[in-house]
Amino acid sequence: MNVKWMSYLRLPHSDSDAAAAQKLCRVLLVGEGNFSFSASVCETAGSCTEITATCFQPEEAARQQGEAGRNIQRLLERGAEVYFQVDCTQLKECVALSGRQFDRVVFNFPHCGRKAGVRKNRTLLTKFFLSCAGVLSEDGEVHIALCNGQGGTPADQPMREWHNSWQVVAMAAEAGFILSEICPFDCAKYHSYRSTGYRSQDKTFHVEGALNHIFTRSLPFTSVQAVAVQETLGKHRVCFQIPEELSEYINRGFLGRHSHHPVNLINERLLKELSSLVPVQRIERELPLLFHSSKGLPDWLCDLSNIYWIRPSEVGLTGSEEASAEELNSSVQPETQPVTSGEAVSNSTGTEEAVKKGYGLRSSLMVHAHEVLQQKGFRVETFYTISGPVFRKIPVSRDNLPAFHETLLICGFDPERRPDYIRVLQRSLEKVIPPRLDSSERLLTFQKLSDAPVLHGISVKQKGERQVGWIAVIPPGRFHPGLHVCAVTLNLDLLAMLVFGVQDWRMLWSSDPRFLDQFCQTELRPLQSFSLHPPLYQHDVSFWVDPLSFDELGFHSLVRQATAGAVIDVRLVDSFQYPHMPQASRCYRLSYQACDRALSSRKAQELQLRLREQIQQRLQVTLR
């Protein structure tokens, strides 16, 4: 390519470029004034680019603008189409554009005219985006050039206050578009372009610092779906329903043998580095998501209040014969009705109470430690490893992951030997996590958390400090009768976020192919976000509760389920109780923000109304 004009359009500049693309690129330009921009595009684009230029004015009025007649003639001579009186907010209604699909729709410096305020221009943008949805191809792009400060994104320098900007990303979200790229608008690249239209006159306006905003379609929001699962635990076949707020995290296959998902890339790289230092043996078989609390859960392993306790819908023997009542009583309590969000089994921090609950979703792969250590052919001083998703019932927060992928490394060794497994693990992790170039500070830290067992938290110092796992040395008798056990758990999702620069943990669960297509087995490259500067909306909800029986974690779970994961943070902003009154008031502030799809103000309000309805129905509270 000899000319790099308008590279943000990604148009073929020559026949060879077009042949490589093997596709005709159809470009629609709307809101043209003197057609100088369209003429510049047409002269530089290759023969496999089809240009359609339109303006809002009648032909006679348009030709009166300086150089407009000559620019129109240049367009027609090069085979472009030119149409007049085309309303960019009603593109589908235009007879000349009827039934056509475009790969690029370009609108430079939109404005309602004269001294129109920000509200009118926001409305113009919204209507334009809604109109584009009907004429844009599935993988097409919408390009909008705005003067510096108008867009309302951090790319504007200086950035206007949100209420005083055009809020272009929020307006695009109303039509299902996300901001995928933003770059400077450089007039020097458009040789004959002359900006006109200042206050609806044939006068130029300043475009220094102007920005091109490139929008693409996003996947739609979908309601959570109930997922029924059948697991085999020992001799029993257990049927149950996954809590609705966790349904999108089930059966994703991110850790499959041929997966190039970031969590699998991290896991494979880590095990490769570790196996170069110590023997490593993978356990390939799939282990159940469910466990039974009668197996015993050590207090240092997990907070029992964070476990999703499950009431099975059916329990039977693995064979054709159903289990007897005596056999079933050993593994499940009489209350065997299915659990939905908001009706979960109440949590307790006492182990005795937890055992009565029966089944729970694993919150750590350590629930499989006994099974690993007791398998046939177990070898001393070999790290056995299993990987899979785990689930935790925790408050809604930017830093809290209700579901993530975990790797468990577990090894038995003779009490007389003391291998330095912390050093081995540190060397392996440092090969996986890129070091900070601006600091000589140690990247990994191992902080001692307890002495019985000897437990160290593993943290990574990168943009703050995050605990990504722990390593424990457990004395004989607790997991193995004659061996010390070294157990390591690592949060693969947090490691992937650090390595690939993922800002929002929800992005790791995105179904948008633009996420997964960025990763390959051979190279660990940072994520290039395809959804920039997503808008944030805040809504409050307040209600009266019985402070003794209110299940706050149940409320957070319901928020995740009712809003389809669109809420990124929930904060208690006010709480009070009148004297001599049994009920207390709670007010929560919910922050709505999507990481990979278009979330409009209207959609956020719709989700908030749905949440309010479900709070009243499922939590039995009184809304204020």
Return residue spans where pLDDT drops below 50 for at least 5 consecutive residues: 1-7, 197-201, 320-344, 346-352
> What would you call the shape?
elongated
Q: Give the termini distance in whole angstroms.
A: 63 Å
Strand content: 25-35%
Radius of gyration: 30 Å
**How much helix is in the residues?**
10-25%
Query: Strand order across the biggest sheet?
Result: 3-2-1-4-5-7-6
Helix/strand/pairing category: alpha+beta
List keywords for this structure.
624 residues, alpha+beta, 7-stranded mixed β-sheet, single chain, 15 helices
In a nutshell, what does this entry contain?
The protein has 624 residues and is an alpha+beta fold. Helices cover 22% and strands 26% of the residues. The longest helix has 18 residues.
Can you characterise this structure?
- By secondary structure, this protein is an alpha+beta fold.
- Helices cover 22% and strands 26% of the residues.
- The chain is built from 15 helices and 24 strands.
- Strands 3-2-1-4-5-7-6 form a seven-stranded mixed beta sheet. Strands 10-15-16-20-19-18-17 form a seven-stranded mixed beta sheet. A four-stranded antiparallel beta sheet has the order 22-23-21-24, covered by helices on one side.
- Helix 7 packs across helix 12.
